[in-house]
What we know:
By secondary structure, this protein is of the alpha+beta class. The chain has 15 helices and 22 strands. It is globular, with a radius of gyration of 23 Å.
Amino acid sequence: MVVVAKPGDPVGLDPANVTDLESLQICRSLYDTLVQYEPDSTRIMPALAESWERSSDGLEVTFHLRRGVVFHDGTPLTASDVKANYERQRDPEHPLRSAGDTFFYWNDTWGDRIESIDVLDEHTICFRFNEPIAPLMQNFAMPFFGIVSPRALKKYGSDYFRNPVGTGPYKFENWVPGDRLTLVKHQESWRGEPAVERVTFLSIPDSTARALRLRKGSVHIATALSPQSVESLRRQPSVKVVEQPGLNVAFLALNNQSTKLADSRVRKAIWHAVDRGALVRGLYYGLADQTDTALPTGVWGREETGSRPFDVAKGRALMEEAGYSTDRRLQLGLWYMAVPRSYLPEPKATAEAIARMLEEIYVTVDLEPVDWGVYLDRVGRGEHEMALAGWIGDHGDPDNYFSFIFGSANIDQVVGGTNVLFYTNSEVDRLIAEARREIDQAKRIESYRSLQETIFEDAPWLPLAHARQVVGVHPLLQGFHLHPTGVLVLDELRWGEP
């Protein structure tokens, strides 16, 4: 058995309805996608589809499914099952939909771009599109499009998120919310039977407790480690530290629909008031890079957009232009998640530090911790004025950052969206759509350069840092992969000899 210590519970186990890393780290072992990323990169490799052909105009792709794949309930995977998964999200009247389904990723990833989905035979399926989609295969590999059992969806309905059935290397055994969730190996996995019988995920909110249990050997993998503990863990013979750059960005989400933040001078003053370098040094312990843009270092298309440095005097001047002073202060609420994230290892301390800094520019901040189980929903609906937030890229294409963080299509005040800035700009939307349709990467880079310049000038948010990913692992545990997206790849886990 392998025990994994995580900071919190998953929100759910239906991949189509989750957006958080806690859920996806478990879903990765439960489900397969048509194609998948390599264990250590975002390059595409076969998965449920063993081969595929894409038309030269980019408007059609045909997948040939692997034969002999079975769901955890023993039923065989067919092309009709794949179609049912996609049609469930595509068709508002589909019989496998349930109350509460959100399908956050569907609209922006596919929306109305899919013209048809045709089952050609039991193991062949063809997708046709009405426009080219540049990151097409990367989209198919996103974990939100993991193939679930249509029979389980029909059986469990709105309770499916607690009763998952996929084709992945591990299958669901039980879940005690707030305590533990256990998976057992899928003996008929097309990848081959896993070497580890069970994987148990423990919910341990305190990072010190996770690190201590890792050192003692009662857990074998620990995620979301506090940066200050990493250096001491490196010196422990009972721990192996796995570290790599992450595809993430941490940011202060400014609600652009709030009248208090509608004035760009106020938003730019917040940029000048927050010493992001101090946050990186003091709260990330150097395990992060300060940033002015959404794209992490190493992602193509990244642009150094300009300079808006830490400058309290400039921040005060902008606030005074906007009508604020010592006698007329701006009062703003700042929400932070009650559990650490890989991109925000110290959310409480980060929020407190930002609040102190904003005091210097006539802003009084009311801090409020929010439980992770409702954080995404509440922030997604725009109930906040300011909120700590983050984004983990799903496949390393710039579109995945700009469309989800800044695209107006991803604002949804009813069920919640991924544009938690509630930022709308028609030029930004145009550039996002233009770059997504363009197959020529050089032309896409030009669109992303203009996009980053426009966003920088509008200042709809305050980007903070790109955090490095750090996970602690038992030194005898082999075959573990920490994917650049932050997902835990557990397919090849095995115990080595002491």
